[in-house]
Design brief:
single chain; Rossmann fold; six-stranded mixed beta sheet; 12 helices
Length: 324
């Protein structure tokens, strides 16, 4: 690499035991550990910080003064790109799917607090979002700015390097680790873990962000690994997407409640909620077994909970009335 990562987060993140959650899932109490990548620091924390250290490092090396990226209104990556820009004295333009006034996302509120400008792309697919971002970059250049386009989700080979480091941390923190369970969105987080720990050690739970997430993981991981990595060789569950990325499913509501009521652990309805629902299913079907060390990677995303009306309604309904 011709550039170095820019320090943005607080590492290594801690690993905490989760004995009550383990028992509730059907594991032995000492089997389950939580990798707290929600505690990375900047901008409310989350897994995207590890990727942004590399992608923003490249942008700075190229002389950028503006960070441009894409996502949904609740995008954790967009929020943390805005936070990174604020810390480094850069401008940020977030190209988001949808239209003004159609979202009350907790992440969108933080985008504004960090000073990001929003370019609404309308109801478009990822190709349309990419095209809108290219147009934004062209307009910025015409106005004399030096934009850098940060990839969707921060994912790519450079961003995946951040999760190679996470895998190396886990190798030291949890000896005899058998399975790392992580949400699979744009692919970079799982790719870095696979490159560090091997295909057999990482279970990705698809959240529905990409049509073919396994292909993305293999593409990003292959240049970073000595192992031959193919989409078919990865451990990927695709049974938790439900009717789409933004929907709240019953297995996810159960997972949110279970984490909160056994460990006081707050998950989000898009990523970590699906990942825990996937872990629960993996224990039921024998892919994750009692007596083996399992790590659940908490990738953050708490602000997304507060912008998801179905999740908020479900959570509020769970509060029993005292004396009722």
């Amino acid at each position: 690499m011709s550039h170095s990562p820019v320090p943005l987060g607080t590492f290594p993140t801690p690993v905490e035991p989760a004995p009550r959650l383990a028992a509730a899932l059907g594991l032995e109490p000492e089997d389950l550990w939580i990798k707290r990548d929600d505690l990375t620091g900047l901008g409310g924390g989350g897994n995207k910080i590890r990727k942004l250290e590399w992608t923003v490092g490249a942008a700075l090396a190229e002389g950028a003064d503006t960070l441009v990226t894409t996502g949904a209104p609740q995008s954790n990556h967009a929020r943390l790109t805005a936070a990174a820009a604020a810390r480094l004295g850069l401008s940020a333009v977030l190209v988001l799917r949808g239209a003004p006034g159609t979202s009350r996302s907790g992440n969108l509120a933080l985008d504004g607090l960090f000073g990001a400008r929003i370019a609404w792309a309308g109801d478009v697919d990822q190709a349309g979002l990419d095209g809108a971002a290219a147009e934004v970059c062209a307009r910025l250049r015409a106005g004399g700015a030096r934009p850098a386009l940060i990839p969707f989700g921060g994912s790519g080979v450079p961003g995946a390097r951040g999760y190679v480091r996470c895998g190396e941390e886990l190798d030291q923190q949890v000896p005899q680790l058998r399975t790392v369970v992580v949400a699979l969105g744009s692919g970079g987080t799982m790719a870095g873990l696979v490159a560090a720990l091997g295909t057999g050690s990482v279970l990705g739970v698809d959240v529905g962000a990409l049509a073919d997430p396994a292909a993305a993981v293999a593409e990003f991981a292959a240049p970073l690994s000595t192992e031959e990595i193919t989409p078919e060789g990865l451990r990927v569950r695709r049974d938790q997407v439900g009717s789409g990325y933004a929907t709240l499913t019953e297995p996810v509501t159960q997972a949110l409640r279970l984490a909160a009521r056994t460990e006081g652990l707050v998950l989000d309805p898009i990523y970590t909620g699906r990942a825990l629902a996937g872990l629960r299913a993996a224990v039921r079907d024998g892919d994750v077994r009692p007596g083996e060390k399992t790590v659940f990677v908490h990738t953050g995303g708490l602000p997304g909970l507060f912008g998801h009306p179905d999740a908020i309604a479900f959570a509020e309904e769970g509060a029993a009335v005292f004396g009722g």
